[in-house]
Amino acid sequence: QVQLVETGGGLVQAGESLRLSCTGSGMTFKQYCMAWFRQAPGEERVFVGAIAWQEFLESTPSYGDSMKGRFTISRDNARNTVYLQINSLRPEDTAVYFCAAERWGDAVPEEYRYKYWGQGIQVTVSS
């Protein structure tokens, strides 16, 4: 059974950096496209970015249009973990951040394309 667990969230001040981790179990991690989404209070969940599965070659992450620049996604297949680095945090980055996975999936922004989801982790940015 595939399980995804996000860690690394919390309360941070504006301007700081944060790295979220998502560790998968019950899966051959390198075979999964891994994505990050976020949901701010009262808003719909939006695509942050994704990194495709890596059977043989490294893959380049893709990002949502409004996420380019301060967000960096990387993965460590040996640790079954995908990371989301967020720099220069802003109060508007306050959200629940979700990790998602799809076996052999493409790095796409549509939620329905991802079968497995973590429970989400809160990130709160104070001004």
Q: Could you walk me through the main structural features you see in this protein, from its secondary elements to its overall organization?
A:
The chain has about 130 residues and is an all-beta fold. It has no helices and eleven strands. The protein is globular and about 40 Å long. The model has no long low-confidence stretch (mean pLDDT about 95).
Observed structural traits:
single chain, 127 residues, mainly beta, seven-stranded mixed β-sheet, four-stranded antiparallel β-sheet, 0% helix
Low-confidence parts? none
Shape: globular
- How confident is the prediction overall: mean pLDDT? 95
* End-to-end CA span: 40 Å
Structural class: mainly beta
Largest sheet: 7 strands, mixed
The helix-strand sequence is EEEEEEEEEEE
Fraction in beta strands: over 45%
What is the alpha-carbon Rg in Å?
Answer: 14 Å
Tally of helical runs: 0
Describe the secondary-structure layout.
Blueprint: E1 3-7, E2 10-13, E3 18-25, E4 32-39, E5 45-51, E6 62-63, E7 71-76, E8 81-86, E9 95-103, E10 116-117, E11 121-126
Parallel strand pairs: 2-11
Antiparallel strand pairs: 1-3, 3-8, 4-5, 4-9, 5-6, 7-8, 9-10, 9-11
